[in-house]
Design goal:
Oligomer: heterodimer
Shape of chain B: globular
Structural class of chain A: alpha/beta
Protein name (chain B): Dipeptide transport system permease protein DppB
Largest sheet of chain B: none
Keywords (chain B): Cell membrane, Membrane, Transmembrane, Transmembrane helix, Transport
Number of domains of chain B: 2
Strand content of chain A: 15-25%
CATH architecture of the largest domain in chain B: Orthogonal Bundle
CATH topology of the largest domain in chain B: MetI-like fold
Family (chain B): Belongs to the binding-protein-dependent transport system permease family.
Distance between the termini of chain A: 13 Å
CATH superfamily of chain A: P-loop containing nucleotide triphosphate hydrolases
Main location (chain B): membrane
Number of helices of chain A: 10
Membrane topology (chain B): Multi-pass membrane protein
Chain lengths: 282, 340
Amino acid sequence: MNQSPILDVQNLTVHYGGAPAPSVQDVSFQLGRERLGIVGESGSGKSTVGRALMRLLPSARVTADRMQFEDVDLLGASERKMLAVRGARMSMILQDPKFSLNPIRRCGDQVAEAYRTHVRASKAEARAKAIAMLDAVQIREPERVYDLYPHEVSGGMGQRIMIAMMLLTSPDLVIADEPTSALDVTVRLQVLKILDDLVREQGIGLIMISHDLNLVRNFCDRVLIMYAGRVVEALNAADLDKAQHPYTRGLLAAQPRIGGSRQPLPVLARDPSWTQPQGAAL
Amino acid sequence: MKRLPPRVSASLGQLGSILVTLFGLLILTFVIGRMMPVDPVRAMVGEEATKEVYETVYRQLGLDRPMWEQFFIYLWDVLRLDFGTSIRTGQPVLQDILHVLPATIELATFAIIFGAGIGVPLGVLAAVNKDKLADHIIRVFSLMGHSMPIFWTGMIGLLMFYAGLGWVGGSGRMSQFYIGLVPERTNFLLIDSALAGEWEVFRSAINHIVLPASLLGYSSSAYITRMTRSFMLDQLNQEYITTARVKGLSRRRTVWGHAFGNIRVQLVTIVALAYGALLEGAVLIETVFAWPGFGQYLTSNLLIGDMNAVMTCVLIVGLIFVGLNLLSDLLYRVFDPRTR
């Protein structure tokens, strides 16, 4: 792995108020300037990890032995400190642009706002920045798109606007929470490619949260497999076929393959023992 | 046929629906006028009148004609702004209305400014601090406003702030001393006194309106607070709020810069409806404060079966609501780009 990690998380546990058990338990990982995938089914706690890192879970109890982002201790940082971190050094791409963009404000203004929140700049300056960024995410006629409202753009365009908004300030870490799940299959790869190019170009650390094993395998360097709030296995994406854990193996076996056997795919079996802590440390 | 541009045809459609509504309203007031368990002739001639007198008045009022003919006569009269004469006051109804309605509009306008002025921020505050102390206090405060009867708060208010502390004026629109001093132009006392340059009267009028308007405002703020709170909670759960927070906006800027803009449309609607309710339904406070307003006028005429006046009042209430709905429709388009 790379030298000094951007992010170092040890034993992150998140417990929502009123829930019987923690949603995330003892999750540990380090992240350099690389692309880390977190894979798991719905409710496995993968999105909660992302939000806990951004400290956007006001009603949950978040504990960890260590949660260090560069020079910032994410556990102990004041809200004021977090305001300077969020959006400037760490940002997050949300799932569905239909809901994640404010419906009554112009797309471009929302992008420009990300800039003006952290950089003292005139409106015109921020506008120019935003338009340049819209251009960078391959939106044609960025000037025209700047003035459109979210309901006037397509899903793929909306997600590119989202990416522009979140990468405009050149953060060191981007958490992409199911960035393409809401998009048409046809534009999915295109949007991912744009994200991937920008992340590589700017040397950003990326956490890609997804339920799609194939996608993560193709776009990430390493993969964490989560099940019921725990990391059950961590591997290099290239070694995914050598996975040991029965859950990971089950997930892989459940993937259809072109030219593969026409037999019904195996059903994913779950074992209650997976929810117990285990020796497979990272 | 040439197609009209969408904006024009939408406006035409709206105009059409307003006309239909107004026509329906006229039918309604007409039917109310005929169905009321009041004999309009008896109300005019009195219990002692002879049969001949009764018959003559009956014919004069056109009650012997067929229903549909009566309706068209009514329609024609309304179009000429001839609403007949009030039995109780002996004056043309229109003239009465021009006196009482401005008094109520003045009161209701101050009340709604006060009510929305405290209700909206409190609702937002309660939503942002959901289930915390501030939320509970605000809920109790607004529940009190909702459940204390207005005639009671009115009397307590008069006792405390007028009789006790002497901070505000008592009943009526101004001190007895000033009555008749200001020429009546619009019948809005504040406007009339300002036009005449009678600032003492103006001050007296403000002094008199403050208490009833704030009590009315408090009671309607209860509803506005509750609705604002629930609209706001709804918006705060939306994903674009997370986006704003991820961008590094503070909670305050997220709430006022992003969420609030999205509840304006709904707020306009409920504030407009609350305003309409104040215009028609301020009877109790008008009675306590001897405010010569619309609610009082409607109620006292209703009680003695003064049909011309009652029908006109119902018509006006209907018009007020049609107007307020139209206004909120227009504001929808200003506030929400999706409706343009």
